[in-house]
Amino acid sequence: MDNNIVVMKFGGTSVGDAQKIKMVARKAIETKASGKDVVVTVSAMGHTTDELIELSKRVSASPSRREMDMLLSTGEQVSIALLAMAIEEQTYKAVSLTGSQAGIFTDDVYSEAKILTIDTKRIFDELKDGKIVIIAGFQGINQHGDITTLGRGGSDTTAVAVASALDARYCEIFTDVSGVYTTDPNIVPGAKKISAVSYDEMLELASSGAKVLHLRAVEFAKKHGVVVHVRSSFNNTEGTWIMDIDKEMEQAVVSGVSYDENQVKISVFGIPDKPGIAARLFDAFAGANINVDMIVQNVGEGGIAAISFTIKNEDLLIAKKVIQDIRDKLEIKEIAIDTDIAKVSIVGAGMKTHPGVAARMFACLGDNGINIEMISTSPIIISCVIRQDKAKEAIKIIHECFELDK
């Protein structure tokens, strides 16, 4: 039975209202009727999560992460119950399961938990009984029996992890776009859908701002070899397959352009230019579960240096506290925080064998008067920090520069 299981994941816009939930029910039933065993994971309806966050702000200036997880997990519970009802209305058997009922066990990091194991017994029992199994995405349970959530976009991770645990044939991620594009079609109407992309390229696209797929879902898919199909909830056309790409195939020099406006640049000035200072600085951030992205350290003069780095906007409040706690210990003279930045990136496995890609990107931006403040490179990605109000213009320029609309 294992090889006949298909995991289908539907995001918030796909279950945004009663009619859309009925449409998702029909898709699940069609797949079941074709002879497959069906497991569905869903997100909270529409803007439910955002609304719950706003509600929390009305009662607390700084709610604990544990209680936020307790609150936010209710959104998915509504979705799974309604979808189960819609399927049963069509005379098919269904059962809704919360993360804990589905046996999804996580670590203890509230609001950014990682899945440790999945006890599949309940899921398999329900499938053997002929039911369509509907699992709440984005959530699990820790060793203390507390509800945890996996971070924004975590329903993707739930779906891929469940697909891996069940040894499913593949994992279908249904969303409001038809697949992975060369860039955001809302910014560049000429953006093209990519038919297949490697795990590594998708990892870089996801980490650099492409919102089609959650970063940890891609990491999980790569680690466990789960084939992922990203496609539209609203039509039956084929989307983008994320998988191991045949090494013999010639890969595109640049597959896609992404941007991330959810970035903050923090600069610390006047720190001693001696071994171990940077380690102590970034250890403090790691201890607070803050992921640091790009880092630039200037050349020290007179025994004094400066370091600039970027983090996600949602980590800024905690980051400020971390810096204040270590300011005196590291002899930091001055701190500057810049929220008006964006990161633009190009991704492509073919860059490994094509020199001059970075120079071409920098020239395209420079020729159009866009200043680069920070640069980060790896074999398949080049990222630049620029002014936030230039981000969309930069995406259009780079997309055209590398002729991705062709």
> What is the number of helical segments per DSSP (H or I, 4+ residues)?
11
- Summarize the helix and strand pattern as letters: EHEHHEEEHEEEHEEHHEEEHEEHEHEEH
**Mind telling me the C-alpha Rg?**
23 Å
Helicity level: 25-40%
- CATH superfamily caption of the largest domain: Acetylglutamate kinase-like
Strand proportion? 25-35%
Summing up helix and strand content along with how strands pair, one would put the structural category as alpha/beta
Give a structural overview:
The structure is a single chain. The protein is α/β, with parallel strands linked by helices and 406 residues long. It folds into 2 domains: 2-176, Carbamate kinase (3-Layer(aba) Sandwich); 257-401, 2-Layer Sandwich (VC0802-like), CATH 3.30.2130. Helix content is 34%, strand content 26%. It has helices at residues 18-33, 48-59, 65-89, 121-128, 154-166, 199-207, 215-224, 277-287, 316-326, 357-367, 391-401; strands at residues 5-10, 37-42, 94-97, 104-106, 115-118, 132-136, 139-141, 147-149, 170-175, 196-198, 228-232, 240-243, 256-272, 295-297, 304-312, 334-347, 374-378, 381-387. The strands form 4 sheets. An 8-stranded mixed beta sheet has the order 3-6-2-1-9-11-12-10, sandwiched between helices. A 6-stranded antiparallel beta sheet has the order 14-15-13-16-18-17. β17 and β18 (381-387) form a beta hairpin. It is globular, with a radius of gyration of 23 Å. The two termini are 43 Å apart.
